[in-house]
């Protein structure tokens, strides 16, 4: 015999309050008042004939019955939310949401986006930056740029560019300090806290005697490159990001040794979701650009 489901609005209010362990925070998430959440929880308690929360001076605590109910429904609401998001994304094929790293966006992707928009003028691109991996189950993101070896569980990974490291200084610092190839120990090292091991990798691979811990640390590689352009010191750069400046003379490689890290940048998206038409267009476009110089 089937049993009728409890009323869904009270059940949803209970799930949020149980997850957040707070009626106030539940009210904020649901965009209602705390009184409304309390009333919905009371409706559910009356329906089930049990007490679901113990009200404390500074919050709430699940009763045994409340904990059992929460364990039974929490995944159901997550599955509903995930399924709804997939349907919603599938119906919005004119919008493409990409998460990337600041330096990759600034140095590689943004200079190329005008070409993509010219070929797809009706497609809106939303580009965000973060060092944190995307949670595709909770974030409305179609694809993300990630660095590594391309072996993330549950994700397709399309290789874009290899990560190869080379030390760079500005042309003016090279001239005023009368630098020569290999003069790593004579300059201030500029580090990226987003890639804290790059100097160490390059120094160990090249055999340099420089101290990889010395220098100035910046939040990301883009800032380290900017500092290098202002004659502050020597940045350890990802070669593909600064090739144009090496060619036009804005930067000078302080060594010809290139450290091949074995890592690369990848475009990633979930295996369990069909790519939107917008993502398929973006992927096709990127494949055509990978071998082209900036």
UniProtKB/TrEMBL annotation:
<dbReference type="GO" id="GO:0043565">
    <property type="term" value="F:sequence-specific DNA binding"/>
</dbReference>
<dbReference type="InterPro" id="IPR005119">
    <property type="entry name" value="LysR_subst-bd"/>
</dbReference>
<dbReference type="GO" id="GO:0006351">
    <property type="term" value="P:DNA-templated transcription"/>
</dbReference>
<dbReference type="InterPro" id="IPR000847">
    <property type="entry name" value="LysR_HTH_N"/>
</dbReference>
<comment type="similarity">
    <text>Belongs to the LysR transcriptional regulatory family.</text>
</comment>
<dbReference type="InterPro" id="IPR036388">
    <property type="entry name" value="WH-like_DNA-bd_sf"/>
</dbReference>
<dbReference type="GO" id="GO:0003700">
    <property type="term" value="F:DNA-binding transcription factor activity"/>
</dbReference>
<dbReference type="Pfam" id="PF03466">
    <property type="entry name" value="LysR_substrate"/>
</dbReference>
<protein>
    <submittedName>
        <fullName>LysR family transcriptional regulator</fullName>
    </submittedName>
</protein>
<dbReference type="InterPro" id="IPR036390">
    <property type="entry name" value="WH_DNA-bd_sf"/>
</dbReference>
<keyword id="KW-0805">Transcription regulation</keyword>
<dbReference type="Pfam" id="PF00126">
    <property type="entry name" value="HTH_1"/>
</dbReference>
<feature type="domain" description="HTH lysR-type">
    <location>
        <begin position="6"/>
        <end position="63"/>
    </location>
</feature>
<keyword id="KW-0804">Transcription</keyword>
<dbReference type="InterPro" id="IPR058163">
    <property type="entry name" value="LysR-type_TF_proteobact-type"/>
</dbReference>
<keyword id="KW-0238">DNA-binding</keyword>
